[in-house]
Amino acid sequence: MAKAPAAKADDKAVALAPVSKLAYGTGSLATPPANLLVVRDTELLGKDLLVQMNAATAKKLGVASGNKVKLSAGTGEVKALVHVNEGVAADTVAMLLGFGRSAWDEFTKGKGDNVYKILTVSDEAGTGLKVWAGSTVTVAKI
Prior knowledge:
The protein has 142 residues and is mainly β. The chain contains 1 helix and 9 strands; from the N terminus they run E-E-E-H-E-E-E-E-E-E. It has one helix spanning 55-61; strands at 13-19, 44-45, 48-53, 68-73, 76-84, 92-96, 122-123, 130-131, 136-141. A 7-stranded mixed β-sheet has the order 2-3-5-4-9-1-6. A two-stranded antiparallel ribbon has the order 7-8. Strand 2 (44-45) and strand 3 (48-53) form a beta hairpin. The two termini are 28 Å apart.
C-alpha cells in the first residue's frame, strides 16, 4: 500500500481516527446484506458517509452537523457529512472503514467513501510493522 503524506500543518489539520466494525465487512469481504441493519444513520446516511467530531472541533473547522465536507491528506480525499458526537476527542475526526466500494452487490456498492485513501501509513518504532497511527487530515466545507 502506498504511503499517503500527512496533511499540511495548519489550523484546519486534525487527527484521523479510523474506526473498524467487522459487521461492515473487510477489504476482501463485502458487507453482508443482513448486516446493513446495524449501520446507524449517524455513520452512513443514504450513500453518504458521516465523519464524527465533537462540537469544539466542528466550531474550529467552521462546520456543523449535516454540512458536507472534504477531508484531504496527500493526494487522497474523502467526502462526508458532519455528525457532531461528543464522544470523539478534541481535534480529532473519526470515520468508519469498510465503505466506498466500487464492486460487490447492490447493498454494498457505492455507499460512503474509502477512508483508506487518506490514512497515513508509517512504521511502528522498534517493530517495523505498518501502522496508521499519526494520520492527520485537513477538513474543508463544500
